[in-house]
Amino acid sequence: MAGSNARDPREFTYLVKVAHISANPVQVHVEADERERAGLAELWKVEAVNRLSADLQIARWKKDGVRIKGNVTGELVQACVVTLEPVVSTIDQEIDQIFVPEGSKPARIVLDGAGEMVLDPEGPDLPETFTGDTIDAGALVAEFAALDIDPYPKKEGVAFSGHIESKAEEDRKPSPFAVLKDWKKD
Q1: Average pLDDT over residues 31-46
Q2: Which of 11, 16, 19, 136 has CA 20 to 30 A from 101's CA?
Q3: Distance between terminal CA atoms of the chain?
Q4: pLDDT value at 122 more than 80
Q5: Is 0.85 surpassed by the pTM of this model?
Q6: Contact of 160 with 82, CB cutoff 8 Å
Q7: CB-based contacts of 11: which residues, under 8 Å, 6+ apart?
Q8: Which residues, in sequence order, are bridge partners of residue 49?
Q9: Could you give phi then psi for residue 96, rounded to 5 degrees?
Q10: How many other C-beta atoms can be found within 10 angstroms of the C-beta atom of residue 14?
């Protein structure tokens, strides 16, 4: 995840020093360069990442946490699942993620009396944890961008057609009485 120290060399990184973050939000614009976009294209198995950037607001959260909010935008090229022609698609994702130091109280998962995890589907996501003094905001941006990639891109106006597995009459359920038609009474 974004708080991890192990990085894939193909990823987009933008390290944020936790000690330098104050309660006053800082506005940051991050943008993937050509090398990072090529690495992300390989990682995401798309033809190209034409653009990836984010406008972020980074601020202290409670005593020792960090909150990163913002918007990720981008453009990528994928192969159409029908024609294999290039399809350009856009990325537009909102980010609102809280990071807390590993082992801190907010990092612990809340369990009810039966040992079940308590999650509010309308509430915020669980905080991510980080170790050390840095958070990789670039990895967070790439993670949220990846969530917006269409797994089945199609060129506009193209439909799946011409492939028929079976005929309608073959798909009809047989009558439960069909087995009786050959049955003869002695």
Answers
A1: 94
A2: 11
A3: 73
A4: no
A5: no
A6: yes
A7: 36, 39, 40, 43, 138, 139, 142
A8: 76
A9: -150, 90
A10: 19
What's the rounded Cα separation, in Å, for the pair 143 and 4?
12
Task: Please report the pLDDT score of residue 153 as a whole number.
Answer: 87
Integer Cα distance of 161 and 183 in angstroms: 42
* CB 79 within 8 Å of CB 87: yes
AA letter at 145: A
Query: How much of the chain, in percent, has pLDDT values that exceed 90?
Result: 46
Per-residue H/E/C for 113-160: CCCCECCCCCCCCCCEEECCCEEEHHHHHHHHHHHCCCCCCCCCCCCC
Whether pLDDT at 146 is above 80 = yes
B/e letters for 132-170, b = 16+ CB within 10 Å, e = fewer, are eebbbbbbbbbbbbeeebeeebbeeeeeeeeeeeeeeee
Residue 107: closest CA among 6, 1, 27, 26? 1
Residues 6+ apart with CB under 8 A from 142: 11, 12, 32, 40, 52
* Model confidence pLDDT, tens digit, residues 89-102: 999 999 999 998 88
Calculate mean pLDDT across residues 7-23.
Answer: 81
- Give Cβ neighbours of residue 28 (< 8 Å, ≥ 6 apart): 14, 16, 55, 56, 57, 58, 137
Taking 70 as the threshold, does the pLDDT of residue 115 lie above it? no
Distance from C-alpha of 81 to C-alpha of 158, rounded to nearest angstrom: 10
